[in-house]
Amino acid sequence: MLESRQPDDVHSSGTLVLEHGQYSPSHQHERGHLAYPATGILSVTTSEGTWVAPSNRAAWTPGGFQHQHRAYGRTDMRVLFLPPTIGDALPRRPAVLVVSSLAREVFLALTGPAWRQAGIRRHLQHVLVDELAIVPERPLRLPRPADDRLRAVADLLHADPADSSTLPELGRAVGTSARTLSRLFHEELGMSFRHWRTQLRLHHSLLLLANDRSITATAHACGWSNPSSFIDAFTAVLGQTPGQYQDQRTRTPERP
């Protein structure tokens, strides 16, 4: 159960510490909510795919979406439910949003032990949503394939993210053409095969780094030929280097 000390948000917003591998049963809420890992990593899975949120991201799940949270590394999850009048400014579908230094402090204030009047809480919620909305989204989304052929390819690469097979080679393995697979990636998942595989590898790298794997070992395990190319790809999407990410994910949040 969430630890909440705000009288107007009991059993809603608050703090939940999850151990590595711990997860919530699949569920849904009427109100949209933000889940922010002040330490550790959270993944959020819906029928549309999986989103990963390290400690400089927050996962947004609108009301009505069936979803499940899972922790990687010991994770201090901060959950903040928003009234529709405030949450409507955020995307209408699940998303991962960039958390600035200011947004982080507001998250901690709204989910910490200090009591605040309802009017002050609403003001802080507006500040948080405004801050999340102005930073361009760097998505960490891995769509879930529905087509049997795409699922077969996804299963092969989930089992071995370092697999460097080309699309024609993967097509032969699952009994279809590279042209068909390429079309399905664009039409069903909204991205190219190359983009999807990069997202898969980045997701996997976050989990390995959370388990204290070295940057070099993580790069090779996820299919990068050298650590430099891995660092470049990671930084382009995450906005920080793998080393900075490892340092940041274990820092202890200051309680307001």
From TrEMBL:
- Which Pfam families does this one have? HTH_18
Per UniProt, the keywords (alphabetical) are: Transcription, Transcription regulation
Entry-linked SUPFAM superfamilies: Homeodomain-like (SSF46689), RmlC-like cupins (SSF51182)
What PROSITE patterns would the database entry show? HTH_ARAC_FAMILY_2
* Domain of life of the organism encoding this protein: Bacteria
Question: Can you give the residue ranges of the HTH araC/xylS-type domain?
Answer: 151-248
Enumerate the transmembrane spans. none
Q: What is this protein called?
A: Helix-turn-helix domain-containing protein
Species lineage: Bacteria, Bacillati, Actinomycetota, Actinomycetes, Streptosporangiales
